[in-house]
Amino acid sequence: MKQPSKLMCQLGSLSRGLDKENSEFEPKSRDKLALKLRKVVNSAQKLEAQEFDLFCRIIGARDIVLDLMDGLGLKKGAEIEKQLILILDALDGVE
Asked: Per-residue pLDDT tens for 53-67?
């Protein structure tokens, strides 16, 4: 959850820099705003890549579970244990 919060702060900072009507904040130069915008875009891309990676892990674990449920009556204990370990490996790091 750290990454979305960072992105929200960056967007807020960019928004304040673009706000010309509110005299509470100093106007920012275009170069500074462009730099902030690049940082926001990079953060959003990292967050999107992270989300895709976690999505793929969850889908992979789901496929393993479905396969395990399909052959539950046919598989031996060692095979079931092996598949459960695969599930844990696939979900490693997923919160």
From this structure: 989 988 888 888 887
